[in-house]
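Ops channel
N.P.: pipeline sanity check, posting one input/output pair.
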């Protein structure tokens, strides 16, 4: 069995989506001789999930997302050669019948080398989001801070979240080969949370 940690480390140099609070980690000297750190960050920092409460009025929070949505078989597809937003046609070419959890490896994986936020990341088109809903995808992940292009109007998020599709963002997929894995995604259990950072791992049996 091989385990792959596909989470981004939380650090003070981690880029954040414009308008989100910076990640701050500060030692608390008053705790001496123990080491204790004050954490200050947004709920959508680093590797995180979007719950329906992120956009939908009265949508369920992260603490109500079933664990069997966050853990189970998934497929990683490589779309790193695509230069623009991912369309429904590009996803159809991936042959996703029977897939319930989908992780998208794109050229975004290279953007993490920049400390500053990059607006030209790859996201989904509205028709791609609608296709994932039609395919009954219960979780979709991508390797930057948003599943929707920077100038999107929220349609991609709304389409997915209204259908109950969990959005997993900020993944580290740069060294992950396409194929089938088991996903283990455990977000912080924040009561009513609109989102939460999470430790996310892929597991693959090696025969």
């Amino acid at each position: 069995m091989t385990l792959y940690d596909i989470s981004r480390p939380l650090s003070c140099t981690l880029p954040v989506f414009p308008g989100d609070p910076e990640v701050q980690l500060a030692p608390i000297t008053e705790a001496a001789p123990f080491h204790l750190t004050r954490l200050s960050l947004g709920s959508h920092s680093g590797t995180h999930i979007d719950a329906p409460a992120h956009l939908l009025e009265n949508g369920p929070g992260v603490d109500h997302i079933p664990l069997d949505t966050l853990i189970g078989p998934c497929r990683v597809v490589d779309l790193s050669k695509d230069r623009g937003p991912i369309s429904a046609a590009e996803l159809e070419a991936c042959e996703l019948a029977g897939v319930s959890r989908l992780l998208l490896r794109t050229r975004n994986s290279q953007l993490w080398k920049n400390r500053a936020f990059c607006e030209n990341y790859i996201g989904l088109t509205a028709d791609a989001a609608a296709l994932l809903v039609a395919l009954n995808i219960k979780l979709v992940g991508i390797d930057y801070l948003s599943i929707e292009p920077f100038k999107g109007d929220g349609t991609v998020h709304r389409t997915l979240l209204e259908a109950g599709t969990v959005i997993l963002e900020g993944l580290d997929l740069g060294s992950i080969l396409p194929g089938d894995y088991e996903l283990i995604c455990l977000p912080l259990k924040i009561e009513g949370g609109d989102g939460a950072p999470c430790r996310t791992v892929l597991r693959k049996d090696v025969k």
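N.P.: looks fine end to end. The chain has one domain: 2-204.
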